[in-house]
Every structure is written in C-alpha cells, then in structure tokens.
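If you are new to this repository, start here. Below is one unmodified record pulled from the training split, so you can see the exact layout before writing a loader.
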Amino acid sequence: MTDHQAHRTLVAREVHEGWTLSVAGGSAPQGVRGSAPQSASLVGIPATVPGSVHTDLLAAGLIPDPYLDDNEALLGWVGRSDWEYRTTLTWTVEEAAAHERHDLVFDGLDTVAEVRLNGQVLGSTVNMHRTYRFDVSNSLHVGDNDLLVRFASPVRYADRQSLALGYRPQVNKHPFNAIRKMACSFGWDWGLDTATSGIWRPVRLESWTAARLSAVRVEASVADGAVDDDPGRVRVHVEIERTVAQSTALHVAVSVAGVERVVEVAPGSTSATIDLEVTSVDLWWPRGYGDQPLHDVDVLLSQDLDLLGSARRRVGFRTVRLEMEPDEHGTSFRFVVNGQPVFVRGANWIPDDAFPHRVTRERYAARIAQAQTANINLLRVWGGGIYEADDFYDLCDERGILTWQDFLFACAAYAEEEPLRGEVEAEVRDNVVRLAHHASLVVWNGSNENIWGYQDWGWEKRLDGRTWGLGYYTELLPRILAELDPARDYTPSSPWSGSLDVYPNDPAHGSMHSWELWNRDDYPHYRDVVPRFLAEFGWQGPPTWSTLTRAISDDPLTPESPGMLVHQKAMQGNDKLIDGLVAHLPLPDDMEDWHWAMSLNQASAVRVAVEHLRSWSPVCMGSVVWQLNDCWPVTSWAAVDGDGHAKPLLYALKHAYADRLVTIQPRAGESGAPLVVAVVNDSSEAWSGDLVVRRLRFDGVELQGVKVPVALAARSTTTVPVPTDVAVPARSGDEVLVATLGVERATWFFVEPRDSALETPTLAVEPVRTATGARVRVTTDVLVQDLALLADKVHPDAVVDDMLVTLLPGESVTFEVTCREELDLAALADSRVLRHTNQLVTEVAR
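And here is the target side for that same chain:
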C-alpha cells in the first residue's frame, strides 16, 4: 500500500480513554447527592468504556458488590438515577485534513441516551441493541473537544413508556417490554435487578474519504447433497455510503480460498452483489459429525486504485434446514445439516453476566468449553437477553456448536405501534446483518413463549384488543429475514407447533417447553410425554459451595437465611426444591448436606429427562435443557454457576449427552416386560456387541441375567425388552439392574434412594499429587451411588474431570483434579468433599 493509499483508507480510532462518570439526577440516597464530600464522590469518577454505571461505581469503591448478600436491594437507586459520561477528544489539524468525513460510532449504548459534542446534540437513543453513527465532521474542532453522553433512568423511562404505549402483560415488576433493553436487566426468576446504564460496547471515531462499506452481508452455500471437494458458492452484498454523489466509479474486490472477483460500482450507486464459486470446499459440520473448516472472505473497497476500506467475514460451507413435516406421530422438528439429521443435545444460554460488557472472549471460550465437556452441540441464545458479541458466534463456528438465536422478545406482550416498531426493525436489521454469515447459526426464532403466553396465560382478555407482538413474529421478522437472510429457517416462537391453528405447546407437534414437572409434578413424570423436540425444561439447584459461601455471608447459613432467599429468585423456589426432593431423598437439616442433596437432585432430574428423550429418538430429535450458565451467584436451573464453576448437573449432562448411551427405561412393550434397555448410538460408527443385563443384590451377588447381541448403525437407537425374570426384583430395596454394552453402563434402582438399603461405604481413597493438580483413586467395599468429588470445596479453582459415578462393590474410579494452586490432598478425601447418595440415605435418615 502506498502512502497515498494509506491516506485515503478508513481509519478507526478507539474512544475508550479519559472517561468520567457523574450522577446527573434522580433518586440517589440522602447524603450521596447531598452535601460534600459525598456529592463530590459521584462527580467525575473514573469510568471504563466499554462499561456500565454499576461497575464504575464499584471500581471506585462507592457501592458494594451487587452480587453479594442483599446488596441488590441497596442499589435500586442506581437504575432510577440519570448519569453522565464525559471525555475529552483531542483533534489535530493533521487528523482533520486527512479525510473528508468523520463519524462517531457507538456499538452499544445502554439505553436511554443523548450524545453531545461541544454542546451540540448529535442524537438520542432508546435501544440497547443497536449501533449508532453520528457525522461529526462539522462538530469537531482542532484542540480539545468535549464529548458527553447523558443517560436517563431506564426504570423511569420504561414506566413512562408503559403508559404511552398502553398496558401489555409481562412477568416482571418492571415493564421491560416497553423498552428495547436486555429484559433480564430488570431481574428474572434467576437474575438480579440491576437496570444499569452505560456505554456497554466499543466506541470509536471513524475517518474516511469518498466512500465506506456501510454494510457487508456474506452468504456461503453448497448444493443440496454436496460432499467434500464439491464446489462452494459465496455471495457478498455490500452497501456503500458516499461523502457526495461521486462522478467516478468504485470497485469492490472479494476474495476467498484463493478465488477473487472485482466488480465496478457505477457512479452514484450505493450497493453491489458479488458472486464467487470456489471449486473445492470441505463441509462444515456440528461437533461430533465432522470438522469445522472456515474460510476468510475479504472485501476491499477502492476508488482509482486507492483502498478506501475493508471488511472480513469468516464462513463455513454447509446446508441446514429445519424440518417440520407431518408424520404418523404429529409434526416433526429436526435439524438436518448437510443432509444428516442431527439429534440436538442442547442447552439454553443467558447473558453470562448481569453486566454483559464484562464477558470477554476468554470467558466465552471457557463457557463454551464447559458446554463441550457436557457433550452439548447446540446453544439457544434466549430472547430475554442480548444478541451476543461476535466472539460468542466465532467460537461456536470454530468448535462446531450450533446456535439458535432468539429475537429479543420474551414472556411478554409487545406493542406493535411506533415508536417501538421502528426500534424493533432497526435492531433486527443491525443484528441480522452482523450475524447471518456464521456457519453455526441454524435458526432464528421470533420470541420466547409469547404465542403460548397469549393463549395460556390470560393475555387475550387483559389486552382487550391491543397489539401484542404477533405482527412482529408472523410479518415483520419474516419479511426482514426474507430480505437479509433468506436461506436460514425461522420459527415465530418457542414453543411452536408449526401453525397458529395448532396449540403452540402440543408435544406431538414441533417444539415444546415443559415446566409442569418443576412447578407442580415430579421429575419421573418427564417419561409420561414424548415430545418431538423439547426446547426448554429444567430443575433448580444451588450454586457450588465455593460460590455460595463467597456470595452469601449469612451466619448461620441456612436454606432460608436472609441471603439465601435473596439469591433464590424463583416464585416459591425453596418450596419447589423441597417438594422435588422428599420423594427421592430425606430432607437434610445440615446445610452442607442440604446443598449436596439439592445439587444431586437437580442432576438426577435432568438426567432422567434427557435419557428419556434420547431413548425416543428419532421420534424426539432434540433436548435443550434450561440452562447452561448463570449471570450471578444464585440458586437456579444452570449447570454452570455465576462464578463459572461446574455444578453436578454439568456432569449429569456429560453422561446423558454422551455419543453412546445405554439407559434403562420403564416402558412396557409387546413382550409385557416392564423395563427396556434403550441403546443410543449417536456416533459416526456402527456399534455392536453383547448387551449384558444383570439383576444384582447390593452386595454384588448376581440374581438373574441375560445376554442379548445388538448391532446399531451410526446415528440410530434400538430398544431391548428386559425379560420379566430379570426385570422384576425379589426385594426391591436391595437390588439393582445393571445393563452393559462395551464400556457403557446403565443402572436402574427399583425404589427411590430414601427407601433403599444403601449402606455406608468404607471408601479407600488414594490421592496423589500431579503436575496439574491431583489424581484421586477411590475404591468402595459396597455399592455406592452417584459418587462425586466436590473439588471446589478444597479450592475454588479446582476442577474435577467427572462426577456422579455409581460403583458396585469392589470397583474403583479415578478422578483427575486440575488446579493452578497446590491442593490439600487430605481434604480431597474428606467426607464433605467426597460425596455420594449413600450419605444422604444412611446419615440424614438417622
């Protein structure tokens, strides 16, 4: 590139330094906004951009951590106050002369903001989910420039808008549906109420000449039925902004995989479409189905051989379709990638932090790695959160994690009139253009539970004829997608039966959500229904012990001590925890026993559901558990807690979502046998061998057994009836059914643990220090159920490789524990760390 070319190329300068924060009005506590010195403490404090008011106040030592104890209640005034961010932007003669146009670009403003430069109002914003660009060419002057972003209280704005737009039902104490802001910023049944403000995504000054790439959309495709080395096609749509109606032509060059094409953009024209064919490509696959080859698509904009700007998108070549077709069972709901039906082993994703600007690429990577540990192949980005940062989707592309992206409508009715409608359309256009090129993205979804809510939650009567969002889901969103992302499938809501004429949560048709089990029934009833695709279900459990005791300082700490109740947001959450436990295990009075019992019960409940769903494939083709992650330390449905620590549930998912699964199910067949063994082969290789089913006493003595040869093709499931003489116990409380195929094993206990004859084991524990932590071998003398090593109780950073292992008498298991710090080996053998179901039966029952 010549000096002249460099002179004309777009230059982006971050505007992240020198920001300060001041309170500008509202309801700050008496003394905070009052006389000095307190008032001075909230004027001109250092601010971080990207950032938020809460995290700036926290960094300045002016508020306590909202994640701890009941500090949330102390900080409600932050969301009811107005705030100002200010910085000085120094501008030189050389910068002013270098380019014709200068834009101030905000990738995210949260949420109700006015932007001023040198006292001049550049614009106002009311949407957290949009990008904003302001032409400051005539507002900047040489020297220091005063840049001010004033944020109005999001709480008071939402309240005012709820009146201006008219009442619409929703599930929160704040009308989150009246403002285009992360819904769970106002709290949820697992989230705290922060209602923060701030410059939450990057801000920069872009200087350019003649023209710039204002939008770049890239579509990568292969023909149906394509295989590796077949041709791939790339279509690039570019939108161009010019400084003036240019009399000279522009050129757009696109290159990918060694193929390049240049097209001319006629004078005055502001768009172009460029098609390329790559003669040989390898297909992109979900994890477990193949590799994830990715290709950079480079787009260059030039004029008279001068480079004006560039963009890069990374793509993978694959076909994806969502099949919703009538069949003998109802209406299917299955994803087909490159012609291969994929059983979805999924989890729902929420914002990983109540202050999402804190989620770095490294944190995304850690969380997605935990999803991989759990054998998850799809993450559903839930509609009450955000369109995640590019890093999230980039990492899913790299690791073969399919993504399902909700549009941001959740559990509420939404006005379809202006000004909300215009904001919705603008945010959708922004984010579809930003995300549509990702190979991992397989479906857009219009809303979370809103069509179901309209029918089942009493909305129709309360709305009294007002709009509620259906026009978004059935008209506006499909229209925008037809324009901007026509090849990708779309559903109007989740759950979705395929038609407005069919009940939206019908298990026989399309996708389903299942919450009656957690709310009212018990988890064995998951087996009562065979949905075509279960997109939400789950069970609560506390965070890990180290997270719980870091976040809550109650003394004594009890299940119902004040801090515990603050960190339990679900309606009657503790009652439901108890109701869901006592049918299976005694209710402990000791706090650590209670913690272990509830953690174990969460894992058991979800494991029952997932194994049931997988045993019915291909009738059922998806399990998306609620939820993978948390945004703060809380008792919730998550498998990974707010400190990023894996709960026992993550290990239950690891086993239940394994490529090869053996599971025993209560399913009377034509043979009359009360139990079957379902063998699920979701691997790419055939699986065959002798399925050995034995009924044992707890002391290991075999009472009855059978050996059945089985052979499964790749991606298939079979069921084997268990003969009655094997399946029916003589003494139900003292016997277990064990089914083994190769190295995979399943167990079936004929009664709940609390009614069984589980004994106190004498465990031989052999911990050995390793270069990365410790290796712990455990051998038992009696049957031990769901053995777990809660390594975080020894050190918060300690991670164990497995958990929830059932051992027969005389068997051993070796746990690998990794930790950056040296571990106390003796502590790893402590009975409060090395936990199992037997303890809850033999010790709690006493």
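Two things worth knowing about this chain: The chain has five domains: 3-204, 210-315, 342-551+600-652, 660-755, 764-842. DSSP finds 22 helices and 44 strands in the chain.
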